[in-house]
Amino acid sequence: MPQRENLGRRTKKLPPGPPGWPIIGNIFDLGTEPHRALQELKLKYGPVLRLRLGSMDTVVIQSAKAAAQLLKNHDASFCDRKPLDVFTCHNYRDGSLAVGRFSPYWRTVRRLCSVEMMTVKRINDTASIRRKCIDQMIRNIEDDTAAANARGESGVVNLPHYLFLMAFNVIGNLMLSRDLLDSQCKEGYEFVQATGMAAMWAGTPNVADFLPFLKWFDPQGLRRNMSRDMARALKIVEGFVKERLEEYKLGNEEKNNKDFLDTLLEFEGDGKDWHEKIPYERIIIIILEMFFAGSETTSAATEWAMAELLRKPEAMRKEETQILGRSLTFKPERFLGSNIDYKGQNFELIPFGSGRRICIDSGLFFSLEKIMWASGRRKVLTGSMSASLMLPRRSNNSQYVDSHGYLRFPVGSSPVRVDPSISILRKAFSLDRPKTSVSPSKSSATES
């Protein structure tokens, strides 16, 4: 939903939309199922509508044609980001790509990421890293399952746990040339816990963003919690950066394959938008953000794909190596033979966005996902492990989801976390905190 503050003051002609209440605007019009409420509003007001969420004017785009017009013709007007309260902690927004202002610094770092990390050649050159991490994940699953069976246990497979470890280590190798985690070692888990908690606070709708006069009170405690967990994560990343700088001082900086941290430390400007080295504090934020953006999203998307494939064995048989697209009715094969592309030019399907703010690592995501889904089909879901992962075919899929939103496999495997409600209202105005854990000793699934 592209957003601009004070849209009414800058533009004489506004899109149509429902009248709002004083102070709170249209917040309550979204109800407990915002996606359904927006669909009903689309039928009444059209594919482009205006909502006032508290003091924030919001334009909602709900058609491919309108999205194409916005992202092609007005991308520059809407490519900035509204400053969210939680990202003011530790000056995070100043160094961020995801939530940073559209500025010369942002363009420079974005270009640096595109050229040094996300080119086709670079992704192809790092294929061995992805294969190594995925092979290690499969070995960990097999070894841990065998060890559990030897102890007389059920051999439960906590799939989200292994997917997250794999994705985290892929990012660790690309950023820092090192594995940060394995399936048993607790080294690095403080980093996982800190980033996981920070991501949770960032993803919790904050009433203070809609009603700015509440920022001073921090009514949900989000800024306070984010400041604590963000500080933990930044401190750990700073340790990685200091370690690399010590290697430079000792003359050990020569490497056959430089990682992204090397690129950031050695960058001295591009002669166009930026004419100096990237500040030390911002390098730490960039590295941290790559873990934010690349680990949880990759593991969660794979988890959803695996869960849906288990529910659709006929689709699994047709599509062994890759899944393209996603819809309310999960039909992985629906894009076979279609010319629709996912890279932001066909606006019927823009899972990674489009324009200046398109997801920068979509190429890496798909190169990694194809290997994981294929590996899952051939290694994880065959032989003795198939009984602990495969869902029986039943007509009523709702029976798999319990009251806490877990998708539970009937034999052996760990629950896959799903969110049966995407209510913005309930999350924004509830002071309750979801109780999550990323401890390796527990079998709870990661948040999707």
Automatic annotation (TrEMBL):
UniProt KW tRNA processing keyword: no
Taxonomic superkingdom: Eukaryota
Family annotation (Gene3D superfamilies): Cytochrome P450
Alphabetized UniProt keyword annotations: Heme, Iron, Metal-binding, Monooxygenase, Oxidoreductase
Pfam families to which the protein is assigned, alphabetical: p450 (PF00067)
GO molecular function, one term: iron ion binding
InterPro entries in alphabetical order: Cyt_P450, Cyt_P450_CS, Cyt_P450_E_grp-I, Cyt_P450_sf
Cross-referenced PANTHER family: CYTOCHROME P450, CYTOCHROME P450, FAMILY 76, SUBFAMILY C, POLYPEPTIDE 5-RELATED
Family per record: Belongs to the cytochrome P450 family.
Protein name: Cytochrome P450
